[in-house]
Amino acid sequence: MGRTVRVIAALGLAVLPGTTAHAAAQAARPPRAVAPALTAPAAPALRRSAWTGTWEAAPSGTAPALPGAAIRNVVHLSTGGNAVRVRLSNRLGTAPLRLGAVTVALRRAAGPDAAPGTLRTATFHGAPTITVAPGRDLLTDPVPLPVRAGADLLVTVHTPDDDGPATFHRQAMQTSYVARSGAGAAQDESGAAYTATTGSWYYVTGVDVRGSATGSVAAFGDSLTDGVGATTDADRRWPDRLAEHLRVRRVGVLNAGISGNRLLRDGTGPSGLSRLDADALDRAGVRVLVVFEGINDIINTPGPTATALTDAYRTLVARAHARGIPVVGVTLTPYRGHRLFDAAREALRQQVNTFIRTGGAFDAVADADAALRDPADPQRLLPGYDQGDHLHFNDTGLLAVADTVGRVLDHRFVGRAAGVRVLR
Predict the structure, then answer these.
(1) CA nearest 145: which of 218, 72, 233, 54?
(2) Distance from C-alpha of 14 to C-alpha of 276, rounded to nearest angstrom
(3) How far apart are CA 284 and CA 279, in angstroms?
(4) Is the peptide bond before 270 cis (omega within 30 degrees of 0)?
(5) For the chain, how big is the Rg over CA atoms in Å?
(6) What is the reported pTM?
């Protein structure tokens, strides 16, 4: 099924893909012939004024609505620009969602206060409010607000009504703030009304920037990409560290990780196969896809066959190649010592890693397994990288993943134009 642009008739607003039907149709596509390794498709050229994704949180589930509240989501931008637009989602909701107000502002410091003079109201085809149908995402109008790479942006969403389950990203590894009476709080620079906190992001699933960015890298995965094990409020997930590595090149990095996510089965969030378009390929300015997912398929019951997983990787790659987007495959890291480790699952991990390294499906390979395993016991993480459960990484391990992926991007997908290093 081709990508369609749906329109809210009353306002003429473009609505982004992400419906269940769209995702299911994409997942049902048969595997296409994939480009062999070392022949990545040429990504289309981006003008410097094009929109580029600077931040993402893939919808992972729903939470009870907070009627009347204003939720001040704190998001960390990977690249800068002279204007922003925000992606808001009712993709997993079951009822129309009324947005009473949405504002953006630069954060003043480590809290809910906005930097003076930076708070802006986001609109929708010029209107300050909108109702979002269930199953849909939408973008705000452009908001003229200069932002720099590495800045924290406050995206405040006021929901006046109890509109049913709220689409959210559970595992933010970031503190955001809630004002219980939000009718006016969304417009306040002061954070005084934001007396409650949350460890999840509500409704906000992306931020794009317009200006000098040269494109973005989409990091697609599970809790290892989502950042479980990272220090909270420190922006040390491996996509954050990769963004630091690429910052001089003005490249954005989008974190499309969902803790607990699987490639083949819905569960914590839609399956990787069904959410690929909405959470990666449809995002603004994506030039390279990095796939680091599959360990949850292996360690959970029922487990897949090696063929089912390798076919899933081929399908992901074929769908990205159809968009002109090359794909980096990341090998699955060790987890001996974890409560779900056993010999059969480990044998499957080794089969999958052999395919990632040598199967020819991916345009390049980042060998995180080789980088993070303990040389004395290759089925285990190096202790200095282990968060403590023998599966997830600490800050040092997350940096090692970022370094491994960054070296591949530097070698394969980064060039030089007009004195500035950019994605080819």
Answers:
(1) 54
(2) 20
(3) 10
(4) no
(5) 21
(6) 0.88
Strand ranges, E, within 238-313: 252-257, 286-292
CB 34 within 8 A of CB 361: yes
Lookup result for tokens 């009718």: 183
Buried b (16+ CB within 10 A) or exposed e, 290-305: bbbbbbbbbbeeeebe
Fold that domain 214-419 belongs to in CATH: Rossmann fold (3.40.50)
- pLDDT tens digits for range 277-321: 999 999 999 999 999 999 999 999 989 999 999 999 999 999 999
Q: Could you report the per-residue pLDDT of 33-88, keeping only the tens digit for each?
A: 222 222 334 444 434 448 999 999 999 999 999 999 999 999 999 999 999 999 99
**pLDDT for residue 47:** 42
The strand ranges marked E within 211-324 are 216-221, 252-257, 286-292
- Classify residue 336 as exposed, middle or buried by CB count within 10 Å of its CB (0-12, 13-18, 19+): middle
Question: Residue 229 in 3-state DSSP?
Answer: coil
CB 216 within 8 A of CB 53: yes
What does DSSP say about strands 364-366 and 70-76: parallel, antiparallel, or unpaired? Answer: unpaired
Give residue 373's pLDDT: 98
Residue type, 302: P
Which is nearest to 155 in space by CA: 212, 71, 42, 235? 71
* N residues, the chain: 424
Residue carrying the six token digits 């603004």: 284
Decide: helix, strand or coil at residue 328.
Answer: strand
pLDDT above 80 (res 228): yes
Q: Quick one: pLDDT band at residue 196, thresholds 50, 70, 90?
A: very high
Determine the pLDDT at residue 182: 86
Among candidates 172, 150, 274, which has minimal Cα distance to 223? 172
